[in-house]
Amino acid sequence: MAEVKIHAESRTEFGKGAARRIRRDNKVPAVLYGHGTDPVHITLPGHDTMLALKTANALLLIEVEGSESHLALPKQVQRDPIKGFIEHVDLVIVRRGEKVQVDIAVHLEGEAVSDALVVLEAQSILVEAEATHIPDGVTVSIEGLEVGAQIHASDLQLPTGTTLAIEPDTLVVNVTAQPTAEQVDAEMAEAEAEAGVQRDEPTAAEEPVAAAAE
Fold first, then answer.
1. Inter-residue contact 144 to 116 (CB < 8 Å)
2. Taking a C-beta distance cutoff of 8 angstroms, is the pair 172, 156 a contact?
3. How far apart are CA 192 and CA 10, in angstroms?
4. Measured torsion, CA atoms of residues 55, 61, 67, 68, in degrees rounded to the nearest 10
5. How many CB atoms lie within 10 A of CB 172?
6. Is the pLDDT of residue 92 over 90?
7. Is 70 exceeded by the pLDDT of residue 200?
8. How far is CA 140 from the centre of its chain?
9. Exposed (0-12), middle (13-18) or buried (19+): which is 134, by Cβ within 10 Å?
10. Which of 94, 109, 110, 205 is least enclosed, having the fewest CB within 10 Å?
């Protein structure tokens, strides 16, 4: 994974008011920590940070104005729940060659048999990899899988240098039979009953009234 260079500024103002002022300037308050160092409070450029963090586990080279550079990974990204803009970023300092644990996405490719329902039980898996060689994800082929087939974490083909950091028997993909319309309706009725929702009983159609003969 290529490094993304971001120029940062040291931050001396704290609190909600200071954070709002930083965001009004299209910047993002952030903190760097790790490897026994004191937390470094910084301000990141909003647009560059947004672009960089579109990539999961983005490897960032943070160049702090008037200080040393730090290689870091995003640990926690806080976003506005409505507008989605980045409110704050926690960055953990890493070293070249060291191993880190990160979640990587699971991607499916291919198609199972026509009457099968493929359930992705694990959207992501925890792995251990070198900080500078974190895979973008892992691809799982479901081509031709039949009902009853299962794929566990131990079945995944991980890139060289990447190892599992979860139990090997963790279920990742489960192939089951497509539910019938009756089963879907029964499950919906059960869910509605648990939620206290009552279905309206169907009413008998009114029979047309014949016009009286004159």
1. no
2. yes
3. 54
4. 150
5. 23
6. yes
7. no
8. 17
9. buried
10. 205
Residue at 48: amino acid letter: D
Does the structure show a pLDDT above 90 at 140?
yes
Token pair belonging to 38: 């004191």
CB 178 within 8 A of CB 116: yes
How many angstroms separate the first and last alpha carbons of the chain?
89
**What's this model's pTM, rounded to 2 decimal places?**
0.75
The pairs formed by 84-88 with CB atoms below 8 angstroms and a separation of 24 or more are 85/23, 85/46, 85/50, 86/28, 86/46, 86/49, 86/50, 86/53, 87/19, 87/23, 87/28, 87/29, 88/19, 88/28, 88/29, 88/30
Close Cβ partners of 9 (under 8 Å, ≥ 6 residues apart): 27, 42, 43, 64, 65
Which residue, chain included where needed, has tokens 């160092």? Answer: 37
Q: Sign of the C-alpha dihedral, residues 156, 158, 161, 165?
A: negative
| 157-168 average pLDDT score | 95
Q: What is the mean pLDDT of residues 164-188?
A: 87
Q: What percent of the chain is predicted at pLDDT more than 70?
A: 91
